[in-house]
Amino acid sequence: MTTIVSVRRGDKVVVGGDGQVSLGNTVMKGTARKVSLLPKHQVITGFAGSTADAITLRDLFEQQLDKHQGNIVTAVTQLAREWRSDRALRKLEALMLVANKERTFLISGSGDIIDPEDGVIAIGSGGNYALAAARALVANSELPARDIVEKSLQIAAGICVFTNDNLTIEELNSVA
């Protein structure tokens, strides 16, 4: 499992994640990259769950972005629809966060598309810890989005055994 968190603050959107790959209760790798920038569309993606499933979903999402000229809302909607209705895709076990300069979404295989109202969202085994930490830091500090993401992931890593402190963080300037 893993932890992925996204924060919008000021003119930035930041998505970060840890690097732990676990198989059951065993840490198999500590340096995985579960957050990536899709530079062609200026979109950041992050995933929690099965790596092969997540890579498949990221590729399908990128195809949807290409097909819909970078329109993230349409791409997210079409991916969720396809993921839920396709017999093979329905079995994929992952969650995705995607963010561009304007919007952030959580996408699930059950058809959920969540656009956070406060600009903060998280997924994965340590997601609730990171979410709580990020919301507290947004409400009670003037820290920039990148620092909030980093501190939230560090807090989650100190609590969740399926999260480590080897972080990957990507950011974009957003439309304020």
TrEMBL record:
The active site is at T2. GO terms for cellular component: HslUV protease complex; proteasome core complex. It is an enzyme of class 3 (hydrolase). Its EC number is 3.4.25.2. Na(+) binds at A157, C160, T163. One of its GO terms (biological process) is proteolysis involved in protein catabolic process. Allosterically activated by HslU binding. It comes from the Bacteria. It catalyses: ATP-dependent cleavage of peptide bonds with broad specificity. Keywords: Allosteric enzyme, Cytoplasm, Hydrolase, Metal-binding, Protease, Sodium, Threonine protease. GO terms for molecular function: metal ion binding; threonine-type endopeptidase activity. PROSITE patterns: PROTEASOME_BETA_2. It is found in: Cytoplasm. Pfam families: Proteasome. PANTHER family: ATP-DEPENDENT PROTEASE SUBUNIT HSLV, METALLOPROTEASE TLDD. Belongs to the peptidase T1B family. HslV subfamily. Protease subunit of a proteasome-like degradation complex believed to be a general protein degrading machinery. A double ring-shaped homohexamer of HslV is capped on each side by a ring-shaped HslU homohexamer. The assembly of the HslU/HslV complex is dependent on binding of ATP. This is ATP-dependent protease subunit HslV.
